[in-house]
Design brief:
This protein is an alpha+beta fold. It contains six helices and nine strands. It has a four-stranded antiparallel β-sheet, with no helix packed on it. Helix 3 crosses helix 4. Pfam families: SprT-like. It comes from Pedobacter panaciterrae. InterPro entries: SprT-like_domain (IPR006640).
Length: 204
C-alpha cells in the first residue's frame, strides 16, 4: 500500500500526499505508534548510521495527528539547520513549525474552528499543541468524531454530513464521482469517493 494511502487513514486525506513527500524528501522513518501517555509524537535525529525518525500516536483524531506530525517535522528541519545548537522549542523551531503549517492552512484542510485556533497558535507556538488551551479545546472536540468515514465506504442511500453541516444522501457512482442529493436544498452534487464525511450521531 502506498505511503499516502496509509497516512490517509490517520489524517485528513488531502494532507497525506504532502506528508508522504516530506517522508521521502527527508528520508525519514515514519512510525505510527500505539498510545503513549507521556507524549503525542516524537522526533529522533540521525544517530550511528540511522536516519531521521518520527513517531506519532495512532489514537489521535485526524486533525490532532496532522498537527503533531507537522510539529515533529519542524523538529527535523530545525535539527537539519542547527543540529543541537538551539533550544528544542526555540525561535528556530517556531519559525519552521509556522512555515511547514502553511500548505495545510492554504488548502483549508482543517475545520474552521481548528484553523482559527491554529492561526492564533502560530503567532507564538508553545512547546506542544496540547499546552495551548484554544487549540487543545478545538482539537479535542474532534476526539469524539469517531464516525468519520470516506464516502466510498458507505452504502448507497446513506445520509451523511460534511464540514459545513449540510446533510446529503449518497447516490450512485457516475464514472469517478458519487451523485449525492443535498437534503437541505434538494440540489445534486458530485463527490470524490475519498471525501471525508460524518455519519449522524444516531447512526441513521
Amino acid at each position: 500500500m502506498k505511503k499516502e494511502n496509509i497516512l490517509a487513514q490517520y489524517m485528513p486525506v488531502a494532507a497525506a500526499p504532502i506528508i508522504a513527500r516530506w517522508i521521502d524528501y527527508f528520508q525519514c522513518e515514519f512510525k505510527i505508534s500505539k498510545n503513549r501517555a507521556t507524549k503525542l509524537g516524537d522526533y529522533r535525529h540521525p544517530f550511528k548510521g540511522a536516519g531521521h525518525k518520527i513517531s506519532v500516536n495512532n489514537d489521535l483524531n485526524a486533525y490532532a495527528f496532522l498537527v503533531t506530525t507537522v510539529h515533529e517535522f519542524a523538529h527535523l528541519l530545525t535539527w537539519n539547520d542547527h543540529k543541537n545548537k538551539v533550544k528544542p522549542h526555540g525561535d528556530e523551531w517556531k519559525r519552521n513549525f509556522k512555515r511547514m503549517m502553511v500548505p495545510f492552512i492554504e488548502q483549508n484542510i482543517f475545520p474552521e474552528d481548528v484553523q482559527s485556533a491554529i492561526v492564533s497558535y502560530l503567532n507564538n507556538p508553545s512547546a506542544a499543541s496540547c499546552t495551548d488551551l484554544k487549540l487543545s479545546r478545538a482539537l479535542k472536540k474532534y476526539d469524539l468524531l469517531l464516525n468519520v468515514s470516506r464516502l466510498e465506504e458507505l452504502p448507497i442511500n446513506t445520509v451523511f454530513s460534511i464540514k459545513d453541516g449540510r446533510q446529503f444522501k449518497k447516490g450512485e457512482r457516475l464514472r469517478k464521482r458519487y451523485r449525492c442529493v443535498c437534503l437541505d436544498n434538494g440540489n445534486t452534487y458530485l463527490f470524490n469517493p475519498l471525501a471525508e464525511v460524518t455519519l449522524p450521531a444516531t447512526g441513521t
